[in-house]
C-alpha cells in the first residue's frame, strides 16, 4: 500500500466513532439459549449481530431483567367468572385474547403450582403466526387469582388480589379439591362461561393445550367429549403416565429442597432462572410473579414473599391426576400432539401407539433416531415432537418453537381448510348440463 493510500485510509477511520461497549443485557439470554455462547463471543472482542438481537438498541422495559412483566403485555383482557357449586363460591380467573372472524381458540391449562401466565410468552408468539387466533388461559382452583370460598364467607369482590386468593385457597375456609374430575369440570365451565360473557353465538373451533397436570386435565376433557365437534385437537406438554407416576416418588424430596420464602419478587424470578426451572428470562418475568405473593404479616420479615400454591397440600391428588392418562390420550377423538423435553419420557403404551403405522422393525429405533436432536413425527396415532434443549416447562423455555408447532398442528387439523371432492351424482349432473341435455330432460330440456 502506498503512503498516499495509507494516509487516505487513516483519514477515513478517524471519522468513525469509538467502538461501542458490550451491553450489560448480553450477560443473559432472553430466548433460553446457553449464555456461555455470549461469553465466548465477548472474550474474543468480536460481536456478530443476528436478527433476534438488537445489540445497540436502547434497552426497553421488555429487555430489562430487573423488572417483572404484567399480563397486559401478552393478553387483551382478564375475566372473573363467578360460580356457586357444591356449597362453594368460586371466582374463576382467566386471561383472554378473543379470536377474530373465524379464528380458532387455543385453550391453555397450566401445571400444578403454576398459573395461566405460564403460557403468556407462547400465546404472544402464536398470535404473531396466527393473527386471527384467540387464546384463553385460565388459573385453576387455588392457583393464580382463582378464589374458592364457602358460601357463608362469600364476598362481593369480583377481582381478588393474588394474596387474597392465597388466603382463601389454603386458609381452611374451603376444602381443597383438586381431583381430576373437578378440574375437568372447571375447564369446561370456564369455556362456556367465557362464551356467555363474550356474547359468542357459537364456540370457536377449539384446540386444548395442557402442560403437566394441565395435560391430564385436557386429555380427560377430550376423552369425555364434553366440547362436542368444536374440539378440533388437543396437545399435551411434557407429561406421560409412566414417567409421571415414577416422578411422584421423588416429588416430596424436590419440594423440600426448593426455597420456601424469598426476600423480594425479583429474587424469586432469579431463583427460577438460575436453577434453570425456567430457562427463558422473559417468560420467567411474566409467569413467576403470579406464583408468589407478599405476606402482610410475614413470619420472617426479611423474606416476606411466599409460594401462592402449597404443592405439598395437593399430594392426595397426585396419583389421581395421571392414572390411565396414556390410554385416554390415545383413545380420545381429535388430533393429538405430544410435545416432550426428552425421549426417555415415552412409556410403553405411547411407544406402541407411535410405532403403529411406522416401518421400524426394531421398536427401540425411534429412541435412537430422536436422541440428541429435535424430532418430529406425524405417523402412528399421534404427532410427536421432542425439544431436547428444553426443560420441563417446554412452552416457557422455547415459546417461539412451541408456538410454531401449535400453529402447524392447528392447520393440519383445521376442517375449514379441507376441500372435499364432489359427489358422483353432482359430477354427472354437471356434465349433462354442459352437454345441454339437462339433468332429467331430453335435448331440448323438456321432460320425457
TrEMBL record:
Q: Name one GO molecular function term.
A: protein methylesterase activity
Instruction: Choose any GO biological process term that the UniProt entry carries and state it.
Output: monocarboxylic acid biosynthetic process
Q: Does the keyword RNA-binding apply?
A: no
Summary of the function given for this chain in its UniProt record: Demethylates proteins that have been reversibly carboxymethylated. Demethylates the phosphatase PP2A catalytic subunit.
**Any Pfam family the entry gives:** Abhydrolase_6
The AB hydrolase-1 domain extends over 106-404
**What protein is this chain from?**
Protein phosphatase methylesterase 1
Give the compositionally biased regions (Low complexity): 24-43
Query: EC class of this enzyme?
Result: hydrolase
Return the annotated region ranges for Disordered: 1-48
Keywords on this record?
Answer: Hydrolase, Serine esterase
Q: Which organism is it from?
A: Penicillium patulum
EC numbers for this chain: 3.1.1.-
Family statement drawn from the similarity comment of this UniProt entry: Belongs to the AB hydrolase superfamily.
Q: Which InterPro entries does the record cross-reference, listed alphabetically?
A: AB_hydrolase_1, AB_hydrolase_fold, PPase_methylesterase_euk
Reaction(s) catalysed by this chain's protein? [phosphatase 2A protein]-C-terminal L-leucine methyl ester + H2O = [phosphatase 2A protein]-C-terminal L-leucine + methanol + H(+)
Q: Which residues does the entry assign to the active site, renumbered to this chain? A: 212, 238, 392
Amino acid at each position: 500500500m502506498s503512503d498516499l493510500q495509507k494516509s487516505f485510509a487513516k483519514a477515513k477511520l478517524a471519522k468513525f466513532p469509538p467502538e461501542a461497549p458490550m451491553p450489560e443485557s448480553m450477560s443473559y439470554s432472553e430466548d433460553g439459549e446457553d449464555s456461555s455462547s455470549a461469553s465466548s463471543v465477548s472474550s474474543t472482542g468480536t460481536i456478530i449481530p443476528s436478527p433476534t438481537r438488537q445489540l445497540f438498541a436502547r434497552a426497553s422495559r421488555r429487555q430489562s431483567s430487573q423488572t417483572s412483566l404484567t399480563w397486559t403485555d401478552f393478553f387483551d383482557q382478564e375475566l372473573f367468572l363467578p360460580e356457586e357449586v357444591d356449597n362453594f363460591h368460586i371466582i374463576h380467573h382467566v386471561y383472554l385474547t378473543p379470536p377474530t372472524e373465524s379464528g380458532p381458540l387455543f385453550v391453555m391449562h397450566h401445571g400444578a403450582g403454576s398459573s395461566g401466565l405460564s403460557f403468556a410468552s407462547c400465546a404472544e408468539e402464536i398470535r404473531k403466526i396466527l393473527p386471527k387466533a384467540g387464546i384463553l388461559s385460565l388459573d385453576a382452583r387455588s392457583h393464580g387469582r382463582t378464589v374458592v370460598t364457602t358460601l357463608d364467607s362469600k364476598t362481593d369482590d369480583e377481582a381478588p388480589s393474588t394474596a387474597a386468593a392465597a388466603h382463601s385457597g389454603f386458609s381452611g375456609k374451603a376444602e381443597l379439591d383438586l381431583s381430576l374430575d373437578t378440574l375437568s369440570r372447571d375447564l369446561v365451565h370456564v369455556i362456556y362461561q367465557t362464551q356467555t360473557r363474550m356474547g359468542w353465538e357459537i364456540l370457536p373451533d377449539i384446540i386444548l393445550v395442557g402442560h403437566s397436570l394441565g395435560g391430564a386435565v385436557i386429555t380427560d376433557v377430550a376423552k369425555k367429549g364434553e366440547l362436542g365437534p368444536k374440539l378440533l385437537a388437543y396437545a399435551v406438554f411434557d407429561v406421560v403416565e409412566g414417567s409421571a407416576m415414577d416422578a411422584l416418588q421423588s416429588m416430596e424430596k424436590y419440594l423440600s429442597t426448593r426455597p420456601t420464602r424469598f426476600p423480594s419478587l425479583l429474587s424469586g424470578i432469579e431463583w427460577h432462572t438460575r436453577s434453570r426451572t425456567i430457562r427463558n428470562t422473559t417468560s420467567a418475568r411474566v409467569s413467576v410473579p403470579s406464583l408468589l405473593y407478599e405476606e402482610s404479616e410475614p413470619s420472617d420479615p426479611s423474606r416476606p414473599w411466599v409460594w401462592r400454591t402449597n404443592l405439598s397440600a395437593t399430594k392426595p391428588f397426585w396419583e389421581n391426576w395421571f392414572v390411565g392418562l396414556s390410554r385416554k390420550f390415545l383413545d380420545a377423538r381429535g388430533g393429538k400432539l405430544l410435545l416432550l423435553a426428552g425421549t426417555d419420557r415415552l412409556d410403553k403404551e405411547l411407544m406402541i401407539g407411535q410405532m403403529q403405522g411406522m416401518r421400524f422393525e426394531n421398536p427401540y429405533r425411534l429412541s435412537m433416531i430422536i436422541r440428541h436432536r429435535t424430532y418430529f413425527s406425524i405417523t402412528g396415532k399421534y404427532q410427536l415432537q421432542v425439544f431436547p434443549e428444553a426443560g420441563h416447562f417446554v412452552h416457557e423455555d422455547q415459546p417461539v418453537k412451541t408456538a410454531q408447532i401449535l400453529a402447524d398442528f392447528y392447520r393440519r387439523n383445521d376442517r375449514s381448510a379441507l376441500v372435499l371432492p364432489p359427489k358422483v351424482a353432482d359430477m354427472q349432473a354437471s356434465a349433462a348440463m354442459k352437454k345441454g341435455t339437462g339433468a332429467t330432460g331430453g335435448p331440448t330440456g323438456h321432460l320425457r
